[in-house]
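Q&A log
Question type: sequence-to-structure
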Amino acid sequence: MKTSTPCPHCQKPLTVEDFENFTSPFTMKCPHCSAKLKETKVTPFLLLLAAVAVPLLIVLGIAVKTFLVGIIPLVDKVPTALVFLAFCYPLYALYESFNAAVMFNKGNLHTKK
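Response status: OK
Response body:
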């Protein structure tokens, strides 16, 4: 497994951590030269994965909240998003790191024009 890939603009190394810090596959900027980057090989597949994973994560958040309401009735007044962040965020972080690893290892970076 490779540890870095060169930026197509400045040739400085980009690491998996850089890919994890990008807010989305559409707003990638080189941390060294601030060149806008685009990935053309795996982004469509990651979007399909997101179309499946996001509803599953929403259902998981609702299920966790429903379970917690049975134990602690006060949780019923807490927004589901906060319950998800409190109890399911590690799962979401794992999903994001998987996306970054796939994009880093299998992706094809270009500079945006």
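Response note: The helical segments are 16-21, 43-71, 80-106.
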